[in-house]
Specification:
The complex is a heterodimer of chains A (439) and B (254). Helices cover 72% and strands 0% of the residues of chain A. Chain A is mainly α and 439 residues long. The radius of gyration of chain A is 23 Å and the shape is globular. The N terminus of chain A is likely disordered. Chain B has two domains: 158 residues, 3-Layer(aba) Sandwich (Rossmann fold); 68 residues, no CATH class. Chain B has eight helices and ten strands. Chain B has a six-stranded mixed sheet with strand order 6-7-8-3-9-10, sandwiched between helices. In chain B, strands 2-1-4-5 form a four-stranded antiparallel sheet, with helices on one face. Chain B is globular, with a radius of gyration of 18 Å. Classes of the chains: A mainly alpha (439), B alpha/beta (254).
Chain lengths: 439, 254
């Protein structure tokens, strides 16, 4: 850490222009590094496609839209894994929780509810979602209680969970695949109908931009109230402009990905119309991506604005000090694992909705992707350090690597595993170097 | 000689015992503390001073004995109970979360929240700046994790945490062990000031000169038991050292 006090205007002349820029805007240099790595990966795949295959398919609305949908379930779980790892624990069971929750939620909506409620009843998807989140939370709570009160290491409890829940998923349906799921439920997985369209996307975009501006104004007002140093005005404008700009670009991208011809034909057929010449209906933001955005926002608020978040960091920094400060560290552990379980339940909804089926293999090896996403995103396994946005970027990096290699036809699955494994170790190594340098 | 104080003690620990796996860390020890008084706790490492005091701060649960505050028996089962009775502790290890900044540590477990229930970071920082301005005017590092602070700066964060919440009973476990001469002097002045405000202070201390200078009474412990209590102005350094090293009770002790 540097010795600089928290007043942007007092930046010393000796600093480079870039350092002063970062200090004024208060942009985390590590965030910049992660975003840079992500853009590099995207550009790399696109250029490889462009130059070698003659068709750059990565940086297209279609691929980016798919990427956003594919990142949703891993990203949602990664936000919870950040809390787990910050408090010096680990959860190896999330992939299996996805499996068992997906399976029971599938049975519920396909085999248990329809006989009494009728197939396609509009309440079925709501019951299934609530059930999935509650079941996930319950499993998490059980594991958390064993870790906190029976003092069994989290590694062991969740390693046991990894096997137990996967086995339970198989037993639940005797290994059958439950398909298709409820039609409303399936929309939560994305797809042409599982998105909010162009108008809806612009509304979301406007709300998000308004939120960014409100945050900047209220933050400035709070600092002024207590007489703290303010960011220079240009830095405020820059941060607001950059954030809003990214939101607008994302909206433009999802709004330029139109429905495929077959879907258009189906759609106009239901209206008893011919497909008009040059018909274009945009996807817009997919539901799972909006769910991811809401989860990210909620988890960020939880971690940075609430006592709960403070206690998570405090326990990670010094568990003994946290306990001496009157924090009930055991209850906190149970709550954190319960939250992780609930998020895994939500991820199970999205994953099974996307596949339109619940299979025994749902979420297989997700735990490793989720942990890797949190760690690539700067969460320290030593505890006490981590951010929600980092985990989301980490998830994007890993999913980009995975899908990008498929897209350019790079080797088979084993190469993908090698590349992702190397990327994980490299990312942590770079983070270690960075931390040493700023000390 | 006897206890010069009259009236109800602020804190009274009666017949406290605590054992860890058959080892009696504290064996039927009674001590008391009056308002505006500094009582030193002395003894070798392992004599049981810190363990005894942790029963009062809520870090340990006593096996037997009573804790009385203003003459009323109270239950202290965890640090929250102790804080509810206005007992604040500065631990030898400081008990700071290294990854958090000064304000977060100062308010840890008692964060200020706004009307939405969200942590009010700016108000916490403003309050921290206020109290640090009083305790350690040179302190400027408000927005870095406390791991980046010097020993003295960390100490002042720990002291600020105890002082900010209007403690009536303050427990200080070797508050100057990690400090330079200037900062030690600062802590000494602070103790005098708090004492003048009517706080009762338990001071665990190895340095006999600090004890002679700061304490009104001194309790010496050895092997989990109380050797004796002396009024500091009635005894010499050597009397106290004799109690600590040999367990020899001078005639002035009670």
């Amino acid at each position: 850490m540097t010795d600089t006090p928290h007043s942007p205007q007092t930046a010393t002349k000796a600093d480079g222009a870039f350092t002063r820029f970062l200090r004024a805007t208060e942009i985390d240099p590590r965030l910049l590094g992660m975003v840079g790595a992500l853009l590099l990966i995207w550009a790399g795949f696109h250029l490889y496609g462009e130059l070698v295959l003659g068709d750059g398919a990565f940086l297209t609305p279609r691929n980016l839209w798919n990427l956003s949908v594919q990142t949703a379930s891993i990203g949602i779980m990664a936000t919870g894994m950040v809390l787990i790892i910050i408090t010096r624990n680990i959860d190896l069971s999330v992939g299996s929780i996805v499996g068992v929750v997906g399976m029971y939620a599938g049975l519920l909506q396909v085999e248990w509810l329809p006989p009494s409620m009728g197939i396609g009843h509009p309440a079925i998807w709501i019951i299934a979602v609530v059930f999935a989140i509650a079941l996930g939370a319950l499993i998490g709570m059980l594991q958390g209680a064993m870790i906190a009160y029976l003092t069994i290491p989290s590694f062991i409890v969740t390693l046991g969970g990894l096997m137990v829940w996967r086995g339970a998923a198989f037993l639940a349906s005797s290994g059958r695949t439950i398909s298709p799921v409820d039609t409303n439920f399936a929309l939560l997985g994305g797809g042409p109908y599982g998105a909010i369209g162009a108008t809806g996307s612009w509304i979301v975009c406007a709300i998000a931009c308004a939120g960014v501006i409100w945050l900047a104004i209220s933050g400035r007002a709070a600092r002024k109230l207590h007489g703290f140093a303010l960011r220079p005005m240009w830095a405020e404008y820059f941060v607001v402009g950059l954030s809003s700009g990214l939101i607008v670009i994302a909206t433009l991208v999802v709004n330029s990905y139109g429905w495929p011809k077959g879907i258009l034909k189906d759609y106009y057929a239901t209206l008893n119309q011919e497909v008009p010449e040059g018909a274009f209906i945009a996807h817009g933001f997919a539901y799972p991506v909006l769910i991811l955005a809401v989860v990210t926002l909620a988890m960020t608020i939880l971690m940075t604005r609430t006592r709960f978040g403070r206690y998570v960091f405090a326990i990670g920094g010094n568990p003994e000090a946290a306990a001496l400060s009157g924090i009930n560290t055991r209850a906190m552990t149970v709550k954190i694992f319960t939250l992780m379980g609930a998020l895994a339940g939500l991820a199970a909804v999205i994953a099974s909705a996307r596949l339109n089926s619940a299979t025994n293999a749902l979420g297989d090896l997700d735990e490793l992707m989720v942990i890797a996403a949190a760690v690539v995103g700067g969460t320290s396994l030593a505890g006490g350090v981590g951010t929600i946005y980092g985990a989301i970027i980490g998830a994007l990096v890993l999913v980009s690597l995975q899908t990008g290699m498929v897209l350019i036809g790079f080797g088979d699955g084993s190469y993908r595993k090698i590349v992702i494994g190397v990327a994980l170790v490299l990312a942590v190594f770079l983070d270690i170097i960075y931390r040493k340098r700023i000390k | 000689m006897s206890n010069p104080n009259t009236g109800t003690p602020l804190v009274e620990l009666r017949d406290i015992s605590i054992a860890f796996g058959g080892i009696k860390a504290v064996d039927h020890v009674s001590i008391d503390l009056h308002p505006g008084e500094v009582v030193g706790l002395l003894g070798h490492n392992g004599a049981g001073k810190s363990t005894l005091i942790k029963c009062l701060s809520g870090a340990y649960r006593k096996d037997a004995g009573q804790i009385l505050i203003n003459g009323t028996e109270v239950d202290i089962n965890d640090p929250r109970d102790a804080r509810a009775h206005n007992i604040e502790t500065i631990y030898q290890t400081l008990a700071l979360a290294d990854n958090l900044d000064a304000a977060s540590n100062l308010f840890l477990g008692r964060e200020l929240v706004n009307s939405f229930g969200f942590v009010d970071e700016t108000r916490m920082e403003a309050e921290t700046r206020k109290i640090m301005g009083r305790l350690n005017p040179n302190f400027k590092k408000f927005n870095v994790p406390v791991s980046a602070l010097s020993g003295g700066q960390r100490q002042s964060v720990a002291i600020a945490r105890a002082v900010y919440f209007n403690a009536k009973i303050l427990i200080m476990d070797e508050p100057t062990a990690a400090l330079g001469p200037h900062e030690t002097q600062m802590v000494a002045e602070l103790i005098q000031e708090l004492k003048a405000q009517g706080l009762g202070i338990f001071l665990i201390e190895h340095d006999i000169h600090s004890v002679m200078k700061l304490c009104d009474r001194a309790v010496v412990m050895k092997n989990g038991q109380r050797v004796g209590t002396v009024n500091v102005k009635d005894v010499t350094d050597d009397d106290i050292l004799g109690m600590i090293i040999m367990g020899k009770k001078p005639p002035q002790a009670y």
